[in-house]
From TrEMBL:
One GO process term, biological-process aspect: glycolytic process
Reaction(s) catalysed (UniProt annotation): alpha-D-glucose 6-phosphate = beta-D-fructose 6-phosphate
Classification of source organism: Bacteria, Pseudomonadati, Planctomycetota, Planctomycetia, Pirellulales
GO MF term list: carbohydrate derivative binding; glucose-6-phosphate isomerase activity; monosaccharide binding
Record-given protein name: Glucose-6-phosphate isomerase
Protein family membership: Belongs to the GPI family.
Amino acid sequence: MADQLISYDPSGVFLPEHGITPEQLADLAGHLDEARDEVLADAQLWADGVEPSAEKNPLDAGFHELPDRLLGDFRSHGAKSELARIKAAADRLSAETQSVVVLGIGGSYMGARALLEACCHQYYNEVEPAMRRGRPRIYFEGNNVDNDALLDLQRLLQSRGDQWGLVCISKSGGTLETAAAFRILLHDLTASLGKDAGDIAKYVIPVTGTSGKLFELSKALGCKEVFEVPDGVGGRFSVLSAVGLMPAALLGLDVERLLMGAAAMNEHFRNNGPATNIVLQYVGVCHLMEELRGCYTRILSTWGKRLEAAGLWYDQLLAESLGKHEVGALPLTVVNTRDLHSRGQQHQEGARDKLITNLIVDTPSRGAIKIGSSDRNQDGLNELAEKSIPQVLAAAIEGTNQAYREANRPTADIHLPQLDEYTLGQFFQFMMLATVVEGRLIGINPYGQPGVEAYKKNMNAILRK
């Protein structure tokens, strides 16, 4: 199958009463083009090392061309490139461990979780190693403050008695949730090695900045494989750096294809105007629905179980980037058809403050399961015996969109041709580009997250009293 771009269909927002019109979207084209040009100029400004003006500070625009730079470096320098070194380190740790705990929070965690849930076996840690392609089990910690969850993980690792390792992801090493979990699990790992505790660096891979607490701790441990959280790439924009690539490589995913998908989205974004540019169309629809129809809640409606974490990754991206100066839409991820039996009632008949964007995978990764016939037809399903589960899902999507249209509820669709590394790379880059474009469109700096720092400062002050 030839590589396909994801697509965007906003036809469900063109409603007579509560939607917008194609003409209104077309009228916004000039402003969208200007915002796109500003985003491209920001990326070039960052690449040239130019000090940004005060209103653009911080300017963490390094994420934009990161996929192209990493791929270019890999093609030019082979085994010496960062991508090759990430793959080699992941292969080595995979060969020497049966489990790996990935420590990180926010942008240092959400992308990795999204990659596992979208691209791996749905019961990844439970299946035999052969079904994981010989890769280790993956657990996530340091992403919350939960004593019982951490204790359960400690006991699980101890009970198995096999070799495990740690990947700690933190630019500064100062984020308390991650730092505390790392200290505790590092102690456990050291104890588990016994007389071989001097070899602990073999089982620890840090992903961090070029200075800071974790960097210094990595040197003290003697870690030879330390990967960089690149400058100019904020946490929520870092999924296509070592932050996301190291966990992806540990999972045995094709990290080149992941970056190639993102690079393809970059090319589309650069070379298409508002009439055909899906990033600009998505931004335009979201902006107009908010400004003209008061749709301040943006629901990302994922269909099936595999994209929930990708939606949660986007929740953070949108909330931290645009939730400033008392503006910014509220993101909400739902999983359907599950949440049609909970939130669906409100979406159908509640306040008209919502834009629903469906995230749909067109082709399932596995073979289709049929409902099948049965001698026990008390459930009345024999008439659907030849229908498959993907057909049931497709009917649910169509039926839900029809119900929303009939109630004048705006919807749009993002279509992923299939769910794999290439398509997920496109999705990540699509959403990151859309977020910074919208920030420039509405005059909000999409980089930096000053509001997040307040709780950290207070928490540390309380603990140190």
